[in-house]
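User: My collaborator sent over this chain with a note saying "see what the structure looks like." That's all I know about it. Can you take a look?
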Amino acid sequence: MSKKLFGLGKGLSSLIPDEVAEGVNQKRENVFYVEVSKIQPNPEQPRTDFDQEALGDLARSIRKFGVLQPLLVSKIEEDLPRGRAVRYQLIAGERRWRASQMAGLPQVPVIIRDDLAPAGASQQSQRLEVALIENLQREDLNAIEQSEAYARLANEFGLKQQEIAEKVGKSREAVANIMRLMNLPKYIKDATRAGRISGTAARALLSFQDEAAQRQAYEQLTAGGFSTKDVEYAASSAKAAVGRRKASHSARFEDLRANLAEHLQAPVLIRTATGSAKAGQIVIRFTDLEHLNGVVKKIID
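Assistant: Without extra context I'll predict from the sequence alone. Here is the result:
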């Protein structure tokens, strides 16, 4: 059984003209308390990674203060031989629902959206849109989850990039850049999903046309040898080298870089000056003072 908590008061009619008040009443959203056990997760949920430590923190907060923001759900009714069963499907608020379970709450506050009840593809699209937008507004989705959600909106529901951009409040270019992350190899997507590299770094790795160079830049990045700017520079340099058709020059520099990195036991980046194939600089990265001392000793010796 759901228990009504509160709604808009009838006193509005004395302050607002009848035609306006009627529109307000049609759009009002009442809050109810429903049993946690009667709520099931949203199959369209774009978020797939839930940090257990963060959920534990939220559960402790919920034990102390309760659920301060209602969950958004749709109602599912099923006729049985001896009556009707009612359950609810999450549209948005899965973190709060999971944390409420951890906190042992018997009931949680919800807003019921009957217009988003599970039915056809149209409702599926709307539920995915609502869940995606809520997570984006809370900045809860990592770059790969965003990319996957946008891809679903495009592939399963036929939305164009401009339509997706309008729904989530981003530019079409931003949506296109995020969707391109689906082209990354699995190991880079997994690292981005786990937070080992940022979405910005993942987009920089997309710029490599050569898989071996991409993997090498990724390994340097995760080892702390490259910054995101270093990856962007390396990718642009590789593109420029291809454009100038100077493969032998590029290969020679790469051999020098690899040999130097092996000798110094440190990540090395060779940057050539703009418009020059002879001048440039060597960047050597170190992790701490002890590592720096070792690098310097190898150079001096």
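A starting point for your reply to your collaborator: Residues 208 and 235 are 5 Å apart (CA to CA).
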